[in-house]
Amino acid sequence: MSSEDESNRLWERVETDQDLIEQTIKLAKRDLKTAEHVFKDGDYDWSFAISYNAMLQAGRALMFREGVRPRGEFKHVSVVEFVKARFGDEFAEKILFMFNKIRKKRHAAVYERVDSITRTEAENTLNMAREFVEKTGVILDKGRGRG
Asked: How far does Cα 56 stand from its chain's mean position?
């Protein structure tokens, strides 16, 4: 399958909306702050899940900046694949690999098992989310001519 076929299946063109981009990155920052509080309370499953959501929202903001949105039933996969395809050079390969790995593990933590995330996993994911959201902010600022 060509990358164009993949993109047609995973995301679709939309009009760029600066307010939507700004609101979505605000969601990412809100989720990151919440994940930090939940981590301090010792709820590692939810800290992990919310950290992932911060990354997801930041990825969505990047999509919206490029005039696309997730398409189909696997929207989370669409975001991860879009960020890898479009911004792979701007993120460390490890971050993109972990973003996808976290996406898969989050499912078990949210829907299948209690206490499935260790303190170390939650802390590493929180740190990864901080880095991802920060890097996304830099990319978004460049797109507005502020970088």
From this structure: 2
CB count within 10 Å of CB 66 equals: 17
* 87 CB neighbour count, 10 Å cutoff: 17
Mapping DSSP to helix (H, G, I), strand (E, B) and coil, where does residue 140 land?
A: helix
pLDDT for position 1 = 40
Q: Across all residues in the chain, what is the average pLDDT?
A: 88
CB of 120 closer than 8 Å to CB of 133: no
Q: How far apart are CA 128 and CA 147, in angstroms?
A: 22
List the domains of the chain with CATH numbers: 3-143 (1.20.120.330)
Distance between CA atoms of residues 137 and 147, nearest Å: 10
Cα gap 87→39, rounded to integer Å: 29
Place of tokens 């929207």: 75
Distance CA 21, CA 2 (A): 28
- At 88 the pLDDT is 86
